[in-house]
Amino acid sequence: MSLNLEDKKAVVAEVAAEVAKAQTIVLAEYRGVKVSQLTQLRANARQSGVYLRVLKNTLVRRAVEGTPFAGLAEQMSGPLIYGFSEDPVAAAKVLNEFAKANDKLVLTAGSFAGKVLDKAGVQALASIPSRDELLARLLGVMQAPVSGFARAMAALAAQKGETEAA
């Protein structure tokens, strides 16, 4: 079903709003992917905070005009699904993980920090730990000396308690 002019303007405005918030956009060709699999992909994307949508390429080209993602316009051809995320690696992770399990979904391009990425670039971006993972690792590193000190003090107190009891 084709969209009338007002519907197209609404879609462009909605996508432009997502583009304004996004740090990363990832494009993937979905030809041959079953509807049930796309539904699962959408659920995974929603969980990760990724705006995932199948859109007309011409509408997305209009939405990215004048943004750091404008370089992606050359890559927009064929049946594409678009992933937009505020987290720099979330969209790449979601689509890359799905592509590993489903060979019908083919990563085509992406954009991060104003740079257009090819398939290998998107996969490299997907391999970077997410912000939450990095914060958890940092917290673990910061807690290690304190918890080690606490264990040593507890062991020392237990040892002193044994010698006084004897």
UniProtKB/TrEMBL annotation:
Function: Forms part of the ribosomal stalk, playing a central role in the interaction of the ribosome with GTP-bound translation factors.
UniProt subunit comment: Part of the ribosomal stalk of the 50S ribosomal subunit. The N-terminus interacts with L11 and the large rRNA to form the base of the stalk. The C-terminus forms an elongated spine to which L12 dimers bind in a sequential fashion forming a multimeric L10(L12)X complex.
Protein name: Large ribosomal subunit protein uL10
Gene3D superfamilies the record matches: 3.30.70.1730, 6.10.250.290
GO biological process: translation
Keyword vocabulary terms for this entry: Ribonucleoprotein, Ribosomal protein, RNA-binding, rRNA-binding
Family: Belongs to the universal ribosomal protein uL10 family.
PANTHER family the record matches: 39S RIBOSOMAL PROTEIN L10, MITOCHONDRIAL (PTHR11560)
Any one Gene Ontology molecular-function term assigned to this protein's record: large ribosomal subunit rRNA binding
Annotated InterPro entries: Ribosomal_uL10, Ribosomal_uL10-like_sf, Ribosomal_uL10_bac, Ribosomal_uL10_bac_type
Gene Ontology CC entries for this record: ribonucleoprotein complex; ribosome
Gene that this polypeptide is encoded by: rplJ
A Pfam family that the UniProt record links to this protein: Ribosomal_L10
